[in-house]
């Protein structure tokens, strides 16, 4: 038996929001995007989440992202993310996800964040969680600026390909490894490991999980890091997911889940 790892999607799996859209306000404030860009980005994200699992939809999202970022200074993006990370991301990390990550680390598994968001966003979020390994979208850079081309788009089958390549390089036994995601677009990622789990699944993924008898988990408690460290909440579903692979199947509609998530965030502020 080789080494094993746990691969986590980011948005709506580890954090209760879109990591890319979370930085819309500071990007707008610093002149990187316009109000129209904010609206278009939110709409593109919504369309992707509702039905962006086919290659054409993912290609449109990729091309829009590349065009939006064209000309941005990479150092400016990194600075904005660093300065606003604790305000925009820290309060929205699911306590259940943090506990699950700690369970895997205690079991000696490497943790890898796998996200379609840009590496300049994903890597600092990983560091916030104590995770150094990430697979994320990479833009092509020329003279310190994004040139409007995508070097690697970490979405759909590309996630599974990148995970497989990492496993070969590091000697991971994928049959003994774990993967977690909320989106049906990540079906290839989940299928490549021996222990796939659907977290806050969309309708497509919930159906796929049922068909394949995959565990299903519902994460509902975004809690800031400092509070998590003080309270150290017990999260039984995390132990269940790792210890016996038993999912908790809860029939919940997509809209109802997101409405409750918004309510939870409002009360937490």
Tag the structure with descriptive keywords:
269 residues; alpha/beta
The SSE string, one letter per element, is: EHHHHHHEHEEHEHEHEHHH
Number of continuous helical runs: 13
* Largest sheet, spatial ordering of strands: 4-3-2-1-5-6-7
Distance between the first and last residues' Cα = 46 Å
Q: How big is the Rg?
A: 18 Å
How many runs of DSSP E, i.e. beta strands?
7
Question: How much β-strand is present in the residues?
Answer: 15-25%
Overall 3D shape: globular
Structural class: alpha/beta
Sheet with the most strands, sense and barrel status:
7 strands, mixed
Helix content: 40-55%
Summarize model confidence as the mean pLDDT: 83
Low-pLDDT regions: 233-266
Explain the layout of strands and helices.
Layout: E1 5-8, H1 19-22, H2 24-29, H3 35-51, H4 55-69, H5 74-88, H6 95-106, E2 110-118, H7 119-128, E3 133-142, E4 145-152, H8 157-170, E5 178-181, H9 187-191, E6 195-199, H10 203-212, E7 216-217, H11 225-231, H12 236-243, H13 254-268
